[in-house]
Amino acid sequence: MSISGRFKAQRGGFQLDVEFDLPSDGICGIYGPSGCGKTSLLRAIAGLDHHRQGYLKIHDETWQSEREFLPPHRRSVAYVFQEANLFDHLSVQSNLEYGWRRIPAEQRRIAMPRIIELLDLKAFAKRRPDTLSGGERQRVAIGRALAVSPRLLLMDEPLASLDQQRRNEILPYLQALHGEFNLPILYVSHDRIEISRLADHLLLMNAGRITASGPCQQLLTQLDLPMAHEETAASMLDAVVTAVDSHYQLTTFRCGDIEFVVPGHGMAVGQLARLLIASRDVSLALSPSPDSSILNVIPARIEAISEDETGSSTLRLLAGQQVLLSRITRKSVEQLGLRPGMAVFAQVKSIALSAPSHAA
Question: What DSSP letter does each residue of 215-234 carry, written as one string?
Fold first, then answer.
């Protein structure tokens, strides 16, 4: 099962020219700088721009081709915008039921009580949207989109208008959506951390074109792509909790054939998680230091080294079967004599935890 399409359009000085074949399971992050065509792609998929030439097939159903064009109201798609765009004269409950009532009972695959429970909306179901915080309003907008039981959910930078605290509050709800409803989601963002926490698959865009597409974990660490060289560059590892130390308040995670110890003990053994390891938080040593306070010192091998104009180098490391990035100074590379194929020890100073993971 897949989501495949091709669109080509010219508007002023901007040209959209894309072709894609995306998996229909999980969350596909669409990432790129402002103005690169991310929203244009979503609008084309939703059928909001009829003038766009193209082809679109969702699973086994053709929504657009040279001979046919399924109008937006007949596409089983829901769209969440940057702004919640709720009906302020209606209660939260009535907003949720607005689209739900227009769906025949036999086509309602997502139960309203489950939407309210998953997004934690019960406490303010009777209130008007204009009395809610920005984060609460956006949760209602997501709930309203789910209420129409779409086959595809499009999300266009839904957290862009929120501050970091509100974003952190909503991210766990977004992480739970796919696992709960088995609903494919196309998620647009130019926030790299957001994409890293949510996406399973990644589609990179620039200047109206797709520059790369593939598993998120792979593309984040590819040295020939710009994401690996950004200040916020990080490796993404799917993990499972294997031990909890309540005395020291530490949790042990297994990622394939290696383990990491992370401060905190709020998770249970067997729980899935996603670990984000920033390249700037990985230093390198030629031998393990017995006098270091760093808990995670992982044997690794250098796969590749890429230098930039700032005097820094990004190294791609293979630790067991896991890939890590390390961003260090070019001087350190020369002083240690680092080169591809060399065995080193990756000293991981900090690990960000994003739970739950989408891993099976």
Answer: EHHHHTT-TTSGGGGSTT-E
